[in-house]
User: Fold these one by one.
Assistant:
Number 1:
Amino acid sequence: MSTTSSNGNNAVATQTVKANLGDAGTHLKQAAGHAGEAIKGAAGAAGEEMRLGKAQVKSELAETALSGIAAAELAGAASREQMDRLMDKGRDLIDSASDLIRERPLASFGMAFATGWIIAKLARSGDK
């Protein structure tokens, strides 16, 4: 009797192992499905973050372009302003020179003559 009872226990044990392995396979399959869903969710979230980041980069680049255009426009106005200042200084210098010539005509003529002579001398010495 012990053989029959032993075979019966073995059959039950085998069936239990098979059932446990079947349950393990089912649970493994479900775990794989959940992992796949998690990966899909993570990929979707990453894609959304990428779209958001891309939109933010585009926005900042557009702001950069607008700031650059504004700076270029202001640079033109600033250069005109500087040119006007230089022209005013040039006019002031010409007025000062005119006043000096009126006040001291002989000294002015002498300075102009001496300057011309020095320039001519330097030009001739450069030709040799």
Number 2:
Amino acid sequence: MNRPDARELLHIARQTLLQELLPALPADKRYLTLMVANAMAIAGREYQAASGASAMECEQLQALLDDRQLSLEDARNGVAAAIREGRFDAGDERDRLLEALHQTTLAQLAISNPKALP
């Protein structure tokens, strides 16, 4: 295994940016530097969790459509079409859709903004 991996390199670079470089920068560069550090943190989380989040989303959407062979893109398109057709407008189907969307949103939020999670 190659060490450090991409996530670890991003973490090291972010820590260096925040601990070593940020204090030495003029005040007018703080905001931009913090935005870069935040982007690096998101990229690190995405590297670590994105494939799992995508796989979970695909499984959720495939289950909604009862078709385990669909790619993620095809499942997204299929669910969007089913929503437009009214397939999930009532009852258990609506509940299933809302739960799948909720789980998918939580997985994506864990990557983009984990502090916002309940």
